[in-house]
Fold this sequence. Notes:
Layout: E1 7-13, H1 17-30, E2 38-44, H2 51-61, E3 65-69, H3 76-86, E4 91-94, H4 106-112, E5 118-123, H5 130-147, E6 159-162, H6 163-168, H7 179-185, E7 190-195, H8 209-229
Parallel strand pairs: 1-2, 1-4, 2-3, 5-7
Antiparallel strand pairs: 4-6, 5-6
Amino acid sequence: MRTQPFISIVIPVYNEADNIKLLVEELITVLPKIKKTWEIIFIDDGSTDTSLQVLEEVSNKWEGIRFFGFEKNMGQTAAFAAGFRKALGEVIITMGANLQNDPHDIPELIEKIGEYDLVCGWRQKRNDTLIRRISSRIANSVRNVLSGENIKDVGCSLKAFRSEYVQKIKLYNGMHRFFPTLVKMEGGRVIEIPVNHRPRKNGKSKYSIRNSAFRSFLDLGAVCWMKNRSIRYILKEYVE
């Protein structure tokens, strides 16, 4: 019987067959240095390439790796939500499967999680196209102004949560972009730290500015409504 892990790493996968083995090899090099028990959970989001076969290979080759799959593409929020349900760790790490998040940043996230309930990666030096960097900066600014936040980089998948908060937050499609706000709404403490961001070597980006802008704006409206309408109160205690 396996020891219950302290760390669960949740990774959505959509057509990343060329990156999965490389990512696992990096992770199993980094994780033992933390000296905590761990597991890696992949959620295949209806991939149409050979990602599922590669996931089966790596799970058979290395202990501590589990994978699950959707029958069809459901989106990143659904994949994170499914991974959260399957995760057994006290600390939940989220990251992408495209190798742009650096596993070597995970130890620093773990160090901060004692003081905070959510530690967010901030891609201070982004390795993306100019138009993607500019559009991301504009999107972050708009989200912060409308939601009353000060998050520098909501789009970075590399985050560390205390597990109780992934159970508390309520997720709907598109809500993964607003993890910091959702955690704060549950009374959680949030911090951003600079992390490495690497250029994509294999595969193609699954997100375009055109197909995500409108949906993101609708999601932002929903989150602003939730934040403004959330119930906050302090009960006074009286001695009988």
